[in-house]
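Bench notes, bay 3.
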Amino acid sequence: MTDVYAARPVPSATDMVEGRHTHKRVSWSALFGGVVLVVSIQLLLSLLGAAIGFSTVDVNAGNTPSASTFGTGAGIWWVVSGCVSLFIGGYASAWLAGVEIRFDGFLHGLVTWGIATLLTLYLLTSAVGGLIGGGFSALGGLTSTLGSGIKSAAAPIADAAGISPDMIRQQAQAFLSPTTATDPAAMSPQDAQKEVASNLVTYEKGGADAPAAKQRIVAITAAQLKISQADAEKKFDDAQAKIAQAKAQAEQTAKAAADATASAASKTGFAVFVDLLLGAIFAGIGGSVAVARRGTLRRV
């Protein structure tokens, strides 16, 4: 006896079950197609934006936009092109998946956005990052520049504190090359400089030996310049006051640079957050619109 059920096909994911049209909740092939569209459209629009931007450069006529104008325009174009590409990608993924529930379409758009974002971040670390990552490449350049600014701002502090390579070299020479005379009046200019450098190190360290180091420096200064002890001590105090002022200015410059860097980093972080959030919203809306469009066509 022939089994009548043997030739009956197995119900697929799109068969009718109890009068309802069923489907898979996630279609990875549709998501892949949506991501391909997102990356391709983003690449296309980025190249278009670069072409438009470079077309405004006219060095001979002197009408070239400023760097800030270029940066603002590139940022706005990056956000707009990202939203457009993600909307189309989310729409395509939900449409190809054949989902009929708007929330499922919205989720397909969000997943498309997530995969496209991760893929973009991966591509930015590869050789093609310069093509599709104009906005993020600029962000990376800004971060690098800010980091260099901190380093440059910290350099004056190190110099003012007496720990620059030149100072270390001078101090090493002072330690390794003993003077040939102990009487300040009998010292050669080279020996006097070595002795002053050695005692300056002791004075800067502070402690019980600092007063003696100061008196030794004052005595050498008075003997070498042939001035009174009072004038030599005043000269020493004036020099120390200038060094302290230089240190304070260097510290203030470093603090201002650090504040500016932190503010710029904060603004950049918020800008990237808003950009990603807008992309997620537009991708989800695209998926939802695809489901609504499919329902409209079915009713027609």
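Next record in the batch:
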Amino acid sequence: MIKGFKEFITRGNVIDLAVAVVIGAAFSAIIGKIVDGFITPLIGVLFQLGDLNKWVWVVPTLSGGKATFMLGAIIGAIINFLAVALIVYFVFVYPMNRFKERQAAKAGVPESDDEPVLTEQQLLTQIRDLLEKQNS
């Protein structure tokens, strides 16, 4: 059990995922402050709210109280998510994809979109069929 855990944790993709989570959290904090400090007030000014977080919808409840729906906070969270996704894509994903394309072109690896990637089972079936044909 310990050996399996050691293999799992030392795999490259697990370490990459951990690094991505840490960097994502850091970028999320930075982008969150930019959205809260600049974009949200800007949208609030455009809609004459002063601040997007002040955009609420108050609905009377059946018991005579009030339920407050914080529409501005929800919209702010959506804007925050889209801003983080946009920044991560253009700062990390797009440049890395371009880098990989350039490295593949330098190495002479052809881009093959025509051939589907075979699963292990499909590949083994093809090998079995070729061996049967060869033996007969």
